[in-house]
User: Fold this.
Amino acid sequence: MSGNLKYKRILLKLSGEALMGEDSYGINTGVLEFVASEIKEVVAAGVELGVVIGAGNIFRGVAGASKGMDRTTADNMGMLATVMNSLAMQDALERHGVITRVMSAIPMQSVSEPYIRRRATRHLEKGRVVIFAAGTGNPYFTTDSAGVLRALEIDADVVIKATKVDGVYDKDPMIHSDAVKYDSLTYDEVLRKGLRVMDAAGIALAKEDNLPIMVLNMGVVGNIKKAAIGDNVGTIITSK
Ligand code: UDP
Assistant:
């Protein structure tokens, strides 16, 4: 099966909000189970998978800072919240029989391994799903940038940004019924048009190394696996 794969090593970026489902806060266990079953399929197909999870469902640094908190402290809290999501994802995956490791950019030895790049790639080679927690470990960054950074470090073939919509549109499809979806875009188009794919730092980082980014709807059964085989089930962002 792994011979059919276009992308053998994938970095999956999940937003915290994706884990929230229809709830207004926190982790929806139904969504978690669904994501775990999707990941199980992809791993069974032979994909080596790294996962970066955000924390918008719990806490975002900018939200704390807007209420007067020190930004660095607020961002540290946001990064800690990603560890909670990562542990929840690990738990769901292991219940589905998927072997995982959580590696945290903020050392937290009693609940996770520290992030060590060479160890991470070894886990991936052994077929373990590596969940990269605590973003980049630095304030003033987002988990989008962390996803691209980890993807570059582990030499991933693509970053899959899993969202609630089926790709990138010229305007918000949830608000505008005439919004048009792009099948493909360049990094420069994303930046120039100000499209809200991921933050500009993440796009710029991906551009430097020609790392493709695929945006797709996580809610559709089999989408990640289709993307791994090479079907463009969303929007692909590359240099051309
Ligand atoms: N964060 C950070 N540095 C990082 C990654 C994340 O400080 O490298 C903090 C930041 O406060 C951010 C929060 O963690 O708001 C949660 O991440 P993000 O907003 O990217 O989550 P998502 O939007 O994907 O749910």
